[in-house]
Amino acid sequence: MSTVSRFKREEVKAGKRAFSMSRTTIETAFYGNNVERMIDLKKAYEMARASTGTVTVDMPVYKPEEIGIPDGAKILLFNDGETVGRFAGARVILGEKGVDETAMAAVIREAVYNSRYKKMYHTEAYIGLDEDFIIKANLLIPKDYENTLYTWLLNFQYINPFYDEMYAKSKPVGDEPDIYIFSDPDYTHPKFPNGLAYFDPEHNCACLLGMRYFGEHKKGTLTLAWGIANRNGYASCHGGLKRMVRKDGAAHVLGVFGLSGSGKSTLTHAKHAGKYDVTVLHDDAYIISSENGSTVAMEPSYFDKTQDYPLTSEDNKFLVTVQNCGVTLDEAGNKVIVTEDIRNGNGRAIKSKLWAPNRVDKLEEPINSIVWLMKDHALPPVLKLESPALASVMGACLATKRSTAEKLAEGVDKDALVFEPYANPFRTYPLVQDYEKFKYLFEHRGVSCYIINTGHFLDAKIPKEASIAIIEAIVDGTADFKDFGPLSEFKTFDVEGFVPNFGDKEYKNLVKKQIEGRIAYVESLEEAKGGRDALPAEAKEALRKVAAKL
Fold this sequence. Notes:
- By secondary structure, the protein is an alpha+beta fold.
- It is built from twelve helices and 32 strands.
- The protein folds into two domains: 2-52 and 85-232, Phosphoenolpyruvate Carboxykinase, domain 1; 235-290 and 368-501, Phosphoenolpyruvate Carboxykinase, domain 3.
- Strands 13, 14, 15, 16, 17, 23, 24, 25, 28, 31 and 32 form an eleven-stranded mixed sheet that branches. Strands 2, 5, 6, 7, 8, 10, 11 and 12 form an eight-stranded mixed sheet that branches. A five-stranded mixed sheet has the order 3-4-19-22-18, with helices on one face.
- The radius of gyration is 23 Å and the shape is globular.
């Protein structure tokens, strides 16, 4: 699927999908005489290396020529200041209640006007890595943010002849225009002193102001790409997906959905001690076809936390750029990175595609299982959900805790249980569209649904080894599922040390409280954002049937 870059003159008018007040203001900035087009990845590396504040670490990039950068390239480190994570409070989405495009366009116009005093770089990349889904994105960013430009090109697919040919052969996506993102990390507006991430999702454009953190650029781009996928027959997924082939040749395609810190990367890349032939699609961003259940990766690389990778970790040889980590000198006087979140929380790095040697960009086989990764101390390590409506609404009520990848507003309790539908805080379209797409997969494509609790069960931490063993039992078909106490809608099997006891009234009440919390959350959606994210009545009813048995 390709997007539209050029338009016939008679199509250039209000009312066409490509043209709105926001889109026209943002795209026009790309054509100024202070703009230099820069899509060459090798040149981007040299520019980032020479950019003020960059640390060229004395650690070589592994097989640089295979990922498109110069032979002999070194890992580049660039650090932000106070903010080292995403800030949800900066997101403003056109179409949500109270968002006035006329007022927002004035803010954008002022930012664009001020950019005339700067040299700006215009770069391009592809999002989606198969002829079934490949679209074009454009980023405009000021000089001195060459590291952001370089990392953006590494995170997505930089322009080259192979992908140019793929894009040319791909099927057009109706009248969807290319993605355009204007970014000025130094510009802040009085109305948005903590930054602005503004999206006009219907016209595939965004404006990022005062946002230095690379994750805002990555997820801002994916926000728009996922919206395009959603409008064109795909379920948009923030999670990991892998194919596991047993010794008898039976294959199982399994997707895990979870926020940063939920274990989605760990479970996606688990090796399973060689029990299976494992193929990884991606650990963060992919889409599922409603038509045939096939899956396509959105990105080639991995934007991974460095917290669990000390300097001596073998995985670090796949690093290409590093953000918000330290540097020190080793015994030979070489500059090396200091990871493990010593400098600050949420240290990050781009790892090349070579990190997963068993990586593919598309899986033709239809997905078999979807796993909601949750952190809810009332839940046992695993639950199987029998009803399509219940399976989908539990995904819409995915419970977790805040991660260090987020900058939280003042007064927000970082330890409080929160609900993040389908582990995707980047949605720009009504929630019901995700609900219906996942329900369709469960109801009509025969996809199984599970919850794996990767947090605590009561007071006991569930180890990652237990979660990996649960996945293996699902794939092998050896799990002996039984009713979850009085709840036949949920099935579970015993995991040693984590067995629920419904004979304990306190525990039973805890489970009821957590289900009722989900009911209250679904009810809150009927009022929030003017009801834009309200779910069908059947969703709340599925939860009420469960609560009534407790």
